[in-house]
Amino acid sequence: MIRIFLILVLFLIHCSEFSREGQIREECEKTRNNSYIFMLPILERHTTNGNTELNSTVWITNTELSYKKCISESEKNRYNLRSN
Known about the structure:
It is a single chain. This protein has helices at residues 2-15, 21-45, 52-76. The chain is mainly α and 84 residues long. 76% of the residues lie in helices and 0% in strands. It has one domain. The radius of gyration is 20 Å and the shape is elongated. The protein starts with a helix and ends in an 8-residue tail after the last helix.
């Protein structure tokens, strides 16, 4: 009985992630990657003022700033427990 309980507890600890930090970091990475994959080609082809370099530079700067903000939010959530 004790072995089954111990195995069950170890299984639950292994399967659950106690902090939301990892989950938020994954979302930050996914958003950043999607931004580079999908938005930069669109900005290079379609611009309102014809200045594709400036538009791409502004987009990259905004993407990196939002990524840094997202990472800092994930670090704030290090000790907030996730509810499964």
